[in-house]
Amino acid sequence: MFHLMHLRLTKALLPARKRAMLLLASACLGWVSLAHGNQGATGEQVFEILASEIALQRGEPALAYQTYLSLARQTGDPQLAQRAMEIAIAANAPELALDAATVWDKLAPGTDTKPKEVLVTLLMLNQRWSDSVKPAIALLQKQNAENQDRTLKQFQPLLGRATDEAAAMRAYFEIINALKPLPTDSAILYTYAMAAEKAGRFDVMESTLRQILKKTPNDANTLNALGYSMADRKQNLPEAFALITKAHNLAPQDAFILDSLGWVNFRMGKLELARDQLIQATKMKPEAEISAHLGEVYWAIGNLNSAESAWRDAERMDANNATLRETLKRFKPNWVMPNQSTKIVWDGRFSIRMNGGADRPAEGGSGGFTLSQDALNDILEIRNPVGGSIAKITITPGEAVLERGGKISKAIDADTLIQSALGLPLPARGLSDWLRGQVRPGSPASLERSPSGIVSKISQDGWNLSYVWGESSSKLEKLNMTRNTKTGPIDIRLVFDQIDD
Asked: Rounded to two decimals, what is the model's pTM?
């Protein structure tokens, strides 16, 4: 087959028109070659693929994507599904790329592991961590030890891009735990140990870290991880202190190791020493987890104002930090759960203004809305200014469904669904949490409070929220939401008619 890679290598040397013609010729020659071994390319199919490439040249990737994927399903040809996936990726449509990759994997021969490798990667990039476990295990079981290590190391950077770190690490633990024998690479084993901790398997974490230390006894990160885990669980504190002290001597400028040293001293009752070490650690590297620890030490000493100040600092850095939230649940539960009701309804009006800049006029709109939250399910109804229904969006874990004019659209992400279907930049994904004065779980966020402890600002998912509460500080009256985009700033204002508990 005349592969498109040749075109990529030489495209810089070719005029645009000639590149386009070569691309079309390549696509048609490739299709005829692929189909000849199956059922033969019909004239209509050759025309469709030619039209798809023309659509790409005209900036219409959706048409090309749909044609390629449809042809792949008709003919059972995996390379057509691969082409559809490549088009979706180039068009910055990760969900469509995932759909095409799923078809590619189903059509590809079992000996070809590349489709499954791409599928797993796209699942992880789309934050479908639990869905990635089964195909990842199937992929790894077809590989030898060397290729397994390579694949697992490719997965590791994706963990750092997870919006829900705990879910990502639990998936990684399940993937590696299914392998027999386990990998021996220290870097993979270290991540496996951290993942085991997120999965609640402290026995696996500890045995794995000790296995690493047998090979590399002076690995500061491993020494610190093992020591901190024992200190945090109040287990074997003398050994935990010895491990962390050794790690600190090996890496005295590491703020996280110094945080561990302060934490183990706190566990051992050395409060003033722990306070001083944690203050030094926060100066070296301001982090929510370190400030959470510092606040707890202040609380134990009896300096409640300093404790609250440290926790405010932590919320400004990352209000979703797991250690911080666990700490606040114990000492400031009203900060984490300001509203205990399981069901609530918000009713009000909205206005949207999108400033397009000098070469684009400002756009906007207004209407009414009702948002109902019951446990993990949200229902958002959007109305026009005179009360007529525009759309209804139902948001459940893992899926968003939009009903409009008798038609139903589905997507993983509610914000993307609303934007594509309605052209409105409404942040439905985190709205019910934000209206409660809470950050949305699973995404980094910054939060600020008034002197009385009421939430005044939240920054999350690119949005900056400013709150106006009623006199009793229990009823939200107004919420201003702003966001800067490539096409200009977006300003959304919500005014609430009533809030029913």
From this structure: 0.80
